[in-house]
Amino acid sequence: MLPFGDINVIILTDVHSFVGGHSSVHEPNLNADYGHVLSFFQHVQNEIGAVNGNVFLVNNGDFMDGTGLTTNPPSELVGILKHMPWNAI
Q1: Whole-angstrom Cα distance, residue 87 to residue 69?
Q2: How far, in Å, CA of 48 to CA of 30, rounded?
Q3: Which string of DSSP letters, residue by residue, matches 9-43?
Q4: How many angstroms separate the CA atoms of 88 and 9, rounded?
Q5: DSSP 44-58
Q6: Which of 16, 17, 48, 81 has its CA 20 to 30 A from that of 60?
Q7: How far is CA 15 from the centre of its chain?
Q8: Amino acid 66: pLDDT
Q9: Residue (of 51, 61, 58, 46) closest to 85 by Cα position
Q10: For residue 85, is pLDDT > 90?
Q11: Separation in Å, CA 86 to CA 1, 38, 42, 59
């Protein structure tokens, strides 16, 4: 079990619009997509709820410029990002 405190923060950084993760060739032990992130966040929320703590999901930026999802404007990427329960971007 992860150690939880009163305030817990899950931070995503430098995703570069790879919302579907990377191929299994690129760092397979670190490969995760936004579905994995959402599942992990929900799991942590459930675990923390049992101990009366708080958990926040933060995207600290650099989420563009990497795949074809980052058109100008990035309408496809924004649609995906809206489905994540961010507390801050």
Answers
A1: 22
A2: 24
A3: EEEE---TT-TT---TTS-GGG---HHHHHHHHHH
A4: 11
A5: HHHHHHTTT-EEEEE
A6: 48
A7: 9
A8: 67
A9: 58
A10: yes
A11: 23, 10, 12, 7
User: pLDDT tens, 34-80?
Assistant: 888 899 999 999 988 876 779 999 988 776 776 766 777 777 778 88
DSSP 67: S
User: In the structure encoding, which two tokens stand for residue 42, read together?
Assistant: 């929900």
Q: Which residue has the tokens 């995760």?
A: 32
What is the structure's pLDDT at 55? 94
Q: Which two tokens stand for residue 79?
A: 């649609």
Query: What are 12's strand-pairing partners?
Result: 59
